[in-house]
Design goal:
The protein has about 300 residues and is an all-alpha fold. The protein is built from 5 helices and no strands. Helix 1 packs antiparallel against helix 2, helix 3 runs antiparallel to helix 4 and helix 3 packs antiparallel against helix 5.
Length: about 300
């Protein structure tokens, strides 16, 4: 830009000087012509010589004027070329900056992707650890609950044994104990099976979610790599830098929005059906236990009442 200003000042000085010179000639020539007409007492030969000089000066002035016009035209062309060169250099500089920064930018985005991937993995690991911890706590509580009720049942059997005075009552009590233990074992097995099926189904859903998230992540990375490669190709082909930047940002935005939308859909883990199936199996096991124990109590009570009568 400084070069353009200096050149314009330099050429403008030449043109200004030429214009002043023309003005001087324009003032002198009429004055000389007027003097020749006013003082025409000289010889014809002198007048002819003066006319020849005036003609020569006029021709020289026309040549000077033509030269000035040519220099002005040349200056206009040089100025136009210089402006175009400056625009080309500015565009090239912008293009180089975008393409140079493209590597730095993509490196930064790669680091961000790596950090996001690490956070996703960390979040998944944290969820699995919490889920396993909850399972262990529930198993422990279930085991404690079963041990507690097993002890109570043993105390109940002991009280019944103290009341069983006859062989018939003792036989009825033995049968009651067998039916009770079988019913307890059946209920426990059904509950354990329901819990196992629920956990297996939940694990399968979690694995499917992991796979879906991984697929969404790979699709995002592919879209990202395609956008970056397109920008690199555009840089090599000399495409407009502003358009390169706009297209790259637009492509990355679409890829990011698609990934976030897919991730939101995947994160919605629907376990309602698994919970319902587990609760139904719990209810069925409990109902079977209640029916079995009601009949067993009725039989035991009948044996004790018959013997007492």
């Amino acid at each position: 830009m400084v070069i353009l200003v200096n050149l314009m000042m330099k050429i403008s000085s030449k043109i200004l000087f030429a214009i002043v010179l023309l003005l001087v000639f324009g003032l002198i020539f009429p004055a000389v012509s007027f003097a020749a007409m006013r003082f025409g007492q000289g010889s014809v030969q002198q007048n002819q010589i003066l006319e020849q000089r005036l003609e020569q000066k006029r021709i020289e002035w026309q040549e000077k004027w033509q030269q000035i016009k040519e220099e002005h035209q040349k200056w206009q062309e040089e100025k136009k070329n210089l402006q175009q060169n400056i625009r080309n250099k500015v565009a090239e500089r912008q293009r180089n900056l975008i393409c140079e920064n493209l590597e730095k930018w993509t490196t930064k985005i790669d680091q961000t992707l790596t950090q996001r991937e690490a956070k996703i993995l960390e979040k998944q690991t944290e969820r699995m650890e919490k889920m396993n911890e909850k399972r262990e706590n529930r198993d422990q509580k279930l085991e404690e609950f079963r041990n507690k009720w097993e002890q109570k049942w043993e105390e109940h059997f002991q009280l019944l044994e103290e009341k069983a005075s006859t062989s018939e009552q003792q036989q009825a009590l033995v049968k009651f104990k067998e039916v009770t233990k079988e019913a307890l074992a059946s209920r426990q097995a059904a509950i354990d099976n329901a819990i196992s099926e629920f956990r297996n189904g939940l694990d399968q859903l979690i694995n499917e979610r992991k796979t879906a998230i991984e697929n969404a992540k790979m699709a995002y990375i592919d879209a990202y790599n395609q956008a970056v490669q397109a920008a690199k190709d555009a840089c090599e082909n000399g495409k407009d830098p502003a358009q390169i930047q706009q297209e790259l940002k637009s492509a990355l935005k679409k890829a990011r929005e698609r990934f976030n939308l897919d991730k939101q859909e995947i994160e919605r883990l629907d376990i309602k059906q698994l919970v319902k199936t587990r609760q139904d199996e719990f209810k069925e096991a409990l109902d079977y236990f209640k029916r079995t124990m009601e009949k067993a109590r009725v039989d035991l009570k009948a044996a004790f009442q018959t013997d007492n009568n």
